[in-house]
């Protein structure tokens, strides 16, 4: 079937909407394993969500976010907002079964680059932006003193 026979080729993705990737970052968790899914494909903008996890030393985190992706080919600009609940826990092994934990939240709006083909293949992304660090006190969650810093991240994986 050719385009000359009255058929039109669509720009929609038939596969390659899903990605699994490892990401390293300068703020929040040192690394995370993530799943990304393109849930809406428009003519000029695609939307995806991400969900991940990280376990490192005495920390656990769960990055979640939404991405706005431009471009129809494999090279894309990406605008994203990621929220990372981050738990740092300390287990007291001597004379007690207590575990103390401290909870943080990182809010990372970013701009970056994404390499993702319409079909399955290599998935790459890099992003930079401000990171808003929130450290709520344990007795009053909404009384947070935000701190602003810069962050960057790099991700590598596969799309399918």
Task: Describe how the helices and strands are arranged.
Blueprint: E1 18-25, E2 31-41, E3 45-56, E4 59-61, E5 64-70, E6 75-91, E7 99-116, E8 121-134, E9 147-159
Antiparallel strand pairs: 1-2, 1-9, 2-3, 3-4, 3-5, 4-6, 5-6, 6-7, 7-8, 8-9
Protein described:
The structure is a single chain. This protein is mostly beta strands and 160 residues long. It is built from no helices and 9 strands. It has strands at residues 18-25, 31-41, 45-56, 59-61, 64-70, 75-91, 99-116, 121-134, 147-159. Strands 1, 2, 3, 4, 5, 6, 7, 8 and 9 form a 9-stranded antiparallel β-sheet that branches. Strand 5 and strand 6 (75-91) form a beta hairpin. It is elongated, with a radius of gyration of 19 Å. The protein starts with 17 loop residues before the first strand and ends with a strand. 24% of the residues are buried. Mean pLDDT is 86; it is low at 1-13.
- Sheet bearing the most strands, described? 9 strands, antiparallel
- What's the β-strand tally? 9
Strand content: over 45%
Q: Which percent bin holds the helix content?
A: under 10%
Termini separation (Å)? 25 Å
Radius of gyration: 19 Å
Which structural class is indicated by helix and strand composition? mainly beta
**Oligomer, anyone?**
single chain
Unreliable residue stretches: 1-13
């Amino acid at each position: 079937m050719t385009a000359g026979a009255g058929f039109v080729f669509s720009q929609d993705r038939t596969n390659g909407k899903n990605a699994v990737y490892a990401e390293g970052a300068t703020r929040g968790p040192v690394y995370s394993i993530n799943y990304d899914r393109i849930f809406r494909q428009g003519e000029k903008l695609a939307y995806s969500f991400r969900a991940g996890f990280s376990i490192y030393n005495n920390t656990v985190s769960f990055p979640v976010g939404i991405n706005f992706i431009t471009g129809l080919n494999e090279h894309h600009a990406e605008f994203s907002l990621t929220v990372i609940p981050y738990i740092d826990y300390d287990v007291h092994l001597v004379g007690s079964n207590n575990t103390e934990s401290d909870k943080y939240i990182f809010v990372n709006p970013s701009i970056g680059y994404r390499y993702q083909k319409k079909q399955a293949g290599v998935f790459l992304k890099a992003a930079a932006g401000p990171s808003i660090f929130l450290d709520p006190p344990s007795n009053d969650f909404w009384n947070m003193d935000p701190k602003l810093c810069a962050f960057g991240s790099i991700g590598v994986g596969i799309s399918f």
